[in-house]
Specification:
Keywords: Membrane, Transmembrane, Transmembrane helix. The protein is mainly alpha-helical. It has one domain. Helix 1 packs antiparallel against helix 2 and helix 2 packs parallel to helix 4.
Length: 157
Amino acid sequence: MTALFKYLGFLLYANMLAVGIAYIYLLKIRRRIGFHTVMNSATITGGFLAVVTGVILIYQFPLHYVLVTIVTTVVGMGAGALFGGLFDFKTLITGYTNGLMMGLMSPMIGAVAKNSTLFLLFIEVLFIFSIFLVICSSRKELYAEDDNDSPEPSYDK
């Protein structure tokens, strides 16, 4: 077992912290970002948090498959619903169902991976990149909106 597997709890905590920071950031600017950005953030965060949580928990507790599946599904549904709830009920349902489906499938993926360090690193890099992409896309939309609000220069004299 590699040294990375000793710190799976800290890795899970860091993932939850990254999602929490992204949620707080999006909560502050939710009135100024569009429907599509919130929809994408709900599906990405709910789904990827469920996948990463499922893989980490099945690596830690390989004999508790049912409990890991239940916990992972609840985490995915909760994250998807929280991020979807930033906008409206339709987005909440979309994030919820995506978190549900990914939460049900992720322990299967983790069980098939059989404690592969390479797979865990791949999933983690994808997760961090996805959270970064959610924040960057909302910032880009936010600043694009600010640029459109600026008055047009007048060339009439």
